Amino acid sequence: MLIFILAILSCLTSIHSRCIIQIEKGKKMEKEEFMKEALKEAQKAYDKLEIPVGAIIVKDEKIIARAHNQKETKFDTTKHAEILAIQKASKKLKSWRLIDCEMYVTLEPCSMCAGAIINSRIKKVFIGTTDNKTGAVGSVLNLFDDYTFNHKVEFETGILKDECENILKRFFKDLRKIKKVGG
Ligand SMILES: [Zn+2]
Q1: Distance in Å, CA 107 to ligand 1 centroid
Q2: What is the pLDDT of residue 29?
Q3: CA 33 to centroid of ligand 1, rounded, Å
Q4: Do residues 112 and 103 touch, judged by C-beta distance below 8 A?
Q5: In the chain, how many H helices and how many E strands?
Q6: How many Cβ atoms are within 10 Å of 138's Cβ, its own excluded?
Q7: 137 C-alpha vs ligand 1 centroid, how far in Å?
Q8: Which of 41, 82, 102, 108 is catalytic?
Q9: How far apart are CA 158 and CA 91, in angstroms?
Q10: Can you tell me whether residue 127 is helix, strand or coil?
Q11: DSSP3 helix / strand / coil % (the chain, rounded to 5)
């Protein structure tokens, strides 16, 4: 009898845990979770000794493009994470108009990327940390707010700010060490 009760209990527990998994699968991804995906891209750049910046583009709650900075690897100053993500998303949607798309980027976009974001009609940009030297979304200037273009991009700054800042700090610390060893 006891074995029978235990069997029923274990069966119920398994159904319950399956339900929880299903609920979790169906739930909306939070902006922090999307930023974590952009951070994974930043780590890929880090591993290639590139300044660790990552970006993803989301449409209808799905990630349609992932990219990381590849300026050094490709010997090309335009290979910023945001530009590469825009190119991939455009290819996927077979359109340069990224209407209703959102971008998550670990570092505030520069003027080149902010311009490309406006031109691609991206709806909203979620930014990790700010860039006081070249940031064009509030730090040095604000291309999204201070100027009138034919498309207005919404933005939100400070999503997983510490993580996005720390990966950059860690990278520059490592780089200084490498330079010291190299003389
Ligand atoms: Zn840029």
Answers
A1: 9
A2: 83
A3: 22
A4: no
A5: 5, 5
A6: 17
A7: 11
A8: 82
A9: 29
A10: strand
A11: 45, 15, 35
Q: Where are the beta strands (DSSP E) in the chain?
A: 54-59, 62-68, 101-107, 124-129, 154-157
- The model's pLDDT over 68-89, given as tens digits with 9 standing for 90+, comes to 999 999 999 999 999 999 999 9
3-class DSSP state for residue 76?
coil
Determine whether 33 is an active site residue: no
Band (pLDDT 50/70/90 cuts) for residue 163 is very high
Q: Which tokens hold the place of 114?
A: 């902010």
pTM given for the model? 0.84
**Two tokens, residue 142:** 């604000």
Is 58 in a helix, a strand, or coil? strand
**Ligand 1 center–CA 25 separation, angstroms:** 33
Task: Retrieve residue 137's tokens.
Answer: 């979304």
Rounded Cα–Cα distance for residues 64 and 71 (Å): 22
**Residue 117 tokens, joined:** 């974001």
